[in-house]
Design brief:
TIM Barrel; 3-stranded antiparallel beta sheet; 369 residues; alpha/beta; LAM_C_dom; globular; 2 domains; 9-stranded mixed beta sheet; binds iron/sulfur cluster
Length: 369
């Protein structure tokens, strides 16, 4: 508890408030005046906060901002959360809805693209608005949040489509809903005989770990099994509080926790950073699942890493990190084409009765049929 308290740093905030997720949400930092309590804002950041916030809101929990370096504008936490003027430059390939989610929406909030899976968009709200968000076309907007009537229509759709085996609760952040509402939604989903599994996609374990409470764990355990996919991008995000709350999810909530990261220039595009992240995740009970190529969302080109670089990074990772800690590097195809794995090519040559491989060190090995 000592370490967790020390993250609080500001002595004027009682620990009881700091560890209350609703207090963190109510006290999110939304402008440069509040921000200056946490970091020394650079002139570029100051300018970008006012110009870019018109396009995509700026907001961050006090908890998440406490992880940022006070002085360094290139700190990986700051890069993820603070607007940059580059966000205003839109490239030819940038899209409003790169994954074409709105085109595969039979009822409000439900994207049904793959036959056996449906994504259920439940909330516009997140604790932190990530500058590379794929859904910035609607996340953070105050109007149009799906309500009870939309939920009933979505549930009816799931009931009428026996080919749907999996529902993914997403958003915005679905853990922004109260425990009571989550209990209701999970109960309804689990009562549909053909639904095999339910996944929750949430960044709250990263940006608001205090959202994971014993009460939430009881709800999740009641609807066992639940798969929770979270979104850590940098080892700085793996704090003692995160470790404590992930432990609760796994032990009290009986939840299987996985992680998907996005490969982001300046944030995590180095072997050392990714290695620390992936090992750090498995150490606290989270399986690295996907490493995503950054989607072609408008205003995010400054984050994009060339795919060749990503493949090379993953080749180095695979050579030096336990397979348990290695995620699959994928690109989600613009236009709704689905995920495609981006494996390194190790097969150098095919001979009459053997294959020649080059390993991650560049050494050649030949094996027979
Ligand atoms: S938490 Fe997820 S949905 Fe919310 S802004 Fe970040 S990436 Fe987008």
């Amino acid at each position: 508890m000592e370490l967790i308290s020390s993250q609080r740093q500001r002595t004027d905030i009682p620990e009881k408030d700091w560890l209350d997720w609703k207090w963190q949400i109510q006290n999110r930092i939304k402008d440069e005046h509040e921000l200056s309590d946490y970091i020394e804002i650079s002139s570029d950041e100051r300018e970008a906060i006012s110009s870019c916030s018109q396009v995509f809101s700026f907001s961050a929990t006090p908890y998440y901002l406490r992880l940022a370096d006070k002085k360094d504008p290139n700190c990986p936490i700051r890069l993820q959360v603070l607007p940059r003027k580059e966000e205003l430059s839109v490239r030819a390939w940038d899209r409003e809805d790169p994954l074409a989610e709105e085109s595969y929406m039979p009822v409000k909030g439900v994207t049904h693209r793959y036959p056996d899976r449906a994504l259920w968009y439940l909330s516009h709200v997140c604790a932190v608005y990530c500058r590379f968000c794929t859904r910035k076309r609607k996340v953070s907007q105050s109007s149009g949040t799906p309500g009870l009537e939309d939920w009933q229509k979505a549930l009816q759709y799931f009931r009428e489509h026996p080919e749907i085996k999996e529902v993914i609760l997403s958003g915005g952040d679905p853990l922004n809903l109260s425990d009571h509402k989550l209990d209701f939604l999970l109960g309804e989903l689990k009562s549909i005989p053909h639904i095999n599994q339910v996944r929750i996609h949430t960044r709250y374990p990263v940006t608001l770990p205090m959202r994971i409470t014993s009460e939430l764990c009881s709800v999740l355990k009641k609807h066992f099994p639940i798969y929770l996919v979270t979104h850590f991008n940098h080892p700085k995000e793996l704090t003692p509080l995160v470790k404590e709350r992930i432990g609760m999810l796994v032990k009290e909530g009986a939840v299987t926790v996985l992680n998907q990261s996005v490969l982001l220039k300046g944030v995590n595009n180095s072997v050392e950073t990714l290695k620390d992240l992936f090992y750090g995740l498995t150490k606290i009970g989270i399986k690295p699942y996907y490493l995503h190529q950054c989607d072609e969302i408008f205003g995010s080109s400054h984050f994009r890493v060339p795919i060749e670089e990503g493949v090379e990074l993953m080749k180095q990772i695979r050579g030096s990190v336990s397979g348990l800690s290695v995620p699959l590097y994928v690109v989600d195809l613009t236009g709704g084409g689905g995920k495609v794995p981006l494996p390194a090519n190790y097969l150098e040559e095919t001979k009459d009765s053997s294959y020649v491989f080059r390993n991650y060190k560049g050494d050649l090995y030949e094996i027979g049929f």
